[in-house]
Amino acid sequence: MQKNWILFFTGLLFCLSLWVAKPSLGAIETRCGWLDNPTPANWWLTDRDGEWGISFQGGYQANGMENIPDLSSGEYVETNGHYGYACVCLDVTTNLSARKITSIDSGEQLPLSRCQEDPALPSR
What percent of the chain has pLDDT above 70? Predict the structure, then answer.
């Protein structure tokens, strides 16, 4: 009987350790950097940790795309017609292993100088 209790508590502790080891799973985080939209339905964010896919034409699309700020209201660089890039902070949920943003909760457009002066970001 005592052996069963030991096994039960060992299993319980193992499950708790797995839960504690992943506290950020599904957590909203703020990511700031270059938001690129070079062509229709293609979006990604480049921040201090690298490139994060948001949307790919004919394929993947993060939830909450409507929460991307209106980029026409701030500093925006057009590189292909009305497509281009801006500097933003987005409140997002990510899939780290896939390097994708899975959902966008909200966002704020920033002056281009904020990203241009950030040494952790690639220059433009």
Answer: 80
